[in-house]
Amino acid sequence: RVSSDVQFMATNDLMTELQKDSIKLDDDSERKVVRMILKLLEDKNGEVQNLAVKCLGPLVSKVKEYQVETIVDTLCTNMLSDKEQLRDISSIGLKTVIGELPPASSGSALAASVCKKITGRLTSAIAKQEDVSVQLEALDIMADMLCRQGGLLVNFHPSILSCLLPQLTSPRLAVRKRTIMALGHLVMSCGNLVFIDLIEHLLTELGRNDNMSTTRTYIQCTAAISRQAGHRIGEYLEKIIPLVVKFCNVDDDELREYCIQAFESFVRRCPKEVYPHVPTVISICLRYLTYDPNYNFDDEDEDDNAMDAEQNDEDYQGSDDEYSDDDDMSWKVRRAAAKCLDAVVSTRHEMLPEFYRSVSPALVCRFKEREENVKADVFHAYLSLLKQTRPAQSWLADPDAMEQGETPLTMLQSQVPMIVKALHKQLKEKSVKTRQCCFNMLTELVNVLPGALTQHIPVLIPGIIFSLNDKSSSSNLKIDALACLHVIMVTHPAHAFHAHVPALVPPVVACVGDPFYKITSEALLVTQQLVKVGVEPSSDSFDPSPYINDLFTCTIKRLKAADIDQEVKERAISCMGQIICNLGDRLPNELPGTLLIFLERLKNEITRLTTVKALTLIAGSPLKIDLRPVLPDAVPILASFLRKNQRALKLCTLAALDILSAVTPVMVDAVLAELPPLISESDMHVSQMALSFLSTLAVTHPSSLGQLSGGNILQQLITLVRSPLLQGGALAAMLDFYQALVATETPGLGYMDLLRMLTGPVYSQSAALPHKQAYCSIAKCVAALTRACPTEGPAVDVKNSRSTDSIRLLALLSLGEVGHHVDLSSQPELKTVILDAFSSSSEEVKSAASYALGSIAVGNLPEYLPFVLQEISSSKRQYLLLHSLKEIISSASVSGLKPYVELVWSLLLKHCECQEEGTRNVVAECLGKLTLIDPETLLPRLKGYLESGSSYARSSVVTAVKFTISDQPQPIDPLLKNCIGDFLKTLEDPDLNVRRVALVTFNSAAHNKPSLIRELLDSVLPQLYNETKVRKELIREVEMGPFKHTVDDGLDLRKAAFECMYTLLDSCLDRIDIFTFLNHVEDGLKDHYDIKMLTFLMLARLSSLCPSAVLQRLDRLVEPLRATCTTKVKANSVKQEFEKQDELKRSAMRAVVALLTIPEAEKSPLMSEFQSQISSNQELAAIFDSIQRDSSSANMESMDTS
């Protein structure tokens, strides 16, 4: 016999060979290897056995199918053996084989045949209740196989079910437990009939309730099914819940625990069906949250007694002979109740006010819970409540909502004293876990309600210091305590801490000196806050001087250390920057040395960015810290940073240079040399910072700008002005710079010189500039220069007949920009010139002229507004003149416009029935913006026109409302809120176009100011859903020559309706019945191309927003997706048809990938069938893979940016 060592080595070599991809076995060697390994599985030596099992994995994927069957047969036989070791190793072997099989979605034949073979043997092993350990192994493997390959065993599901059900009454609890696991995996993939059988069986047995022990098991089983397949059990809840409620009242703690756990899984997994029962569940949980029958809290004056009771605990139990704590299972009931409340709070956002009335006080009362595990869950449930309250949704913090009395936030505010009182005791508990929970609670509380603890700081600070000083506390606890202290200091007014600085400084300084870098790092953040608090002026004449030395010493020690963690380095730099910025005048001797350290840190690549920020802070200090000693070295280093390819560094450096006032002309030259490459359209923010630095220079060092006249910087500026991307902050910085530059009166850079540079290209080029935007930017610069030099007359050619269109365009725009700020009524021929331009052949010149007229009118309303109105009444060019009017209404001051409102209003009404849709839209925008000037009078008037007989007028009015809604709070909001319902009644208008416009307005409200429509959803949603249906009567056939072409007049309307639905997902999800919503999404999946694209997007959003609801409908949603992916385009179609179909397929695939992010989705039989269809079709598989790659890389990116 070979020694076992040699055997071991040989088996090991075999394993190494099997793992190589290159190995190929012929039939004979296959047979030998399989026989060998199966023999080794029965070897006496355990290590050899273990290796042989490991060889099974690679072997299964290498040998032919019938060999795999031999392996499986042998393993199944050995599993029934009476040798325990052989049994164990065989069951590990079977699990290894099952784990190696290709997944069900790949549709492999091997997996199917192996599983069928194993299933037959296992069901008989489970049914013969001879040897419990065999049964347990068999159940374990069965659960494993159902979990991985359940879909392949559909034909066996009935027989598996009938062998599992009797095991639920097995005398051995372990058998029952594993049976429940196996049933949990079975319901994920079984057909409907099997599922109904199982549920009916459970309901019958629970109804009979023969004995406590089996009833417990059946309740556990129901909870497990709900956890694994909540989307299927929903429809039976009406029958299940009353039974579970009944069993809660039975005096059996274990049963109660299982019942409450069942409730928790219903709440999390069947949100819709559980809805009517939530109040019952809450009241049961609240009852059992305080269920502690064997412990006596004296409620009268619990403050003192609770503390005594905890001290006397030991004696109390000693005296009570017949009762010991080990038998007390009531804590499990309390823990289940806390977890169930956590589930309710996390999933039912719409009940927040109710939670603050009933659940919040009950949880706070239980912070005193004596069982540590339960206490942690009580805290966790309260944290969930706070997280739900966080005003992340704009509508929660919405000013209108505040008027309605009690919002969750105001209710929480009123409970803060009670919370603090409960936490105050817990902060001094022995248990580390409890104290960590307290710090998490305080941190979250302050995030939800900044400033809420101002009154309570004196009570809390000692509790925090207790953990900082506690020798026995773990480092994590200290880190949590420091983090909590930091958040509280940042979110509360400084004066609240003044009294506590003496107590806080010693422990915080000690933490800065802690050997563990994470503690140091948190402590430095707190130190930085302490410095800010120390210098806040306040009534209680607080003096920070006694603490300056301690804070400085502990920080400088960390600042000097070279061999220290990166984060500590950075925070030490920031903290020292804060110290010098706020207290530098009191550290005259330490200052020079510290600045030199900053200079060193500036030269180091990993600390340079933080140091630049710290220097910026110091330079902007009100104490006027003298930085001259380090500037000659620092500025050249800063200038070199402008060359580095690190955007954040460039931005911070420009900000630092902008604020450093003590720079000399030599230093400025070094910086100017680096600027040209920074002024470019490739990074507008950097350009903006560079321009703002130049504007500062024009004020502080005007002489240095002399060298600009021939230099690169101006050329870069001129190129930037012509960029179509120039807008917003960068454009404003550009205008500021031109004004500052012309004010320096530098030779060669006067008004005319700059004007020529700006407009030269337009005059010299025969071709137009590539972008319309460029003309607008140049015009704005011209106007800025003109405003800065009021004495120079604007040099503008509009009349000149030789002018090209582009010169005219620029001239008109410049006139408009100048006229906006300067009254041009002294130019008598302006009006004629502009009206002539209205008849130009170029569209762009026409629209420039209409903009110019409007803009000039803003400069002098009495002169020009009546003129514009008169022209609108008399001339033919209404569209252009109305655009001028729109410009006037948008830009003029409210007080200037007030006198003309009536005139303008009556004029606009004449045009709101115009045939031309473009004109109507401009009129509607004018009406809307005019309404904002005097909403109290004009909004009711708009409402009156809803009765108009003309559908054009009705659509103009509804569109006008859209222009009164903006995402900022406005005085019109409360008025709008009261009457927007009347405008939305036009969703029932007989005219198609009016209904479409009403949907567009509704969408705008839902997007920009959801509070306007949240209360109306009950009446609006049915009408909205009504518009998503395809209307046969709106589809007509048009003959185009020999072809017939169908036109669907209802398409735009449906598209608008689906767009509204998409918007509502983001802003009003908690007010929508998601299942009705899904019905319409489902219809949309079968509609026209544009609507399919929209509903695919909705599905992806829904998968992340409410996965459990989507799961319940999965089968109905998969079918249309599958249809889209398998549609073939007719071979003779045009190219666009093929492209459209490809787009649809990609979009549908994106939706499929999103659905698969729901953990249980791939267990659905239809979905797994669809998946195997995808993987077997080359084109679809390629699309699927590329989308999966994209989505996983996108997730990685979003994690990086956060």
Question: Topology, please?
Answer:
Elements: H1 4-19, H2 27-40, H3 46-62, H4 65-79, H5 84-100, H6 109-127, H7 132-149, H8 157-164, H9 173-189, H10 192-208, H11 212-233, H12 237-248, H13 253-269, H14 271-274, H15 278-289, H16 302-319, H17 330-347, H18 352-365, H19 372-389, H20 399-402, H21 408-426, H22 432-448, H23 457-469, H24 475-491, H25 501-512, H26 517-535, H27 545-560, H28 566-583, H29 591-603, H30 608-619, H31 631-641, H32 647-659, H33 665-674, H34 684-700, H35 712-721, H36 728-743, H37 751-764, H38 772-788, H39 805-821, H40 830-837, H41 843-859, H42 861-874, H43 878-891, H44 894-897, H45 901-911, H46 917-931, H47 935-944, H48 951-962, H49 973-984, H50 992-1008, H51 1017-1026, E1 1035-1040, E2 1043-1048, H52 1051-1067, H53 1074-1084, H54 1089-1105, H55 1107-1112, H56 1114-1126, H57 1135-1155, H58 1165-1176, H59 1178-1201
Antiparallel strand pairs: 1-2
Region (Disordered): 299-327
Protein name: Cullin-associated and neddylation-dissociated 1
InterPro entries: ARM-like, ARM-type_fold, CAND1/CAND2, TATA-bd_TIP120
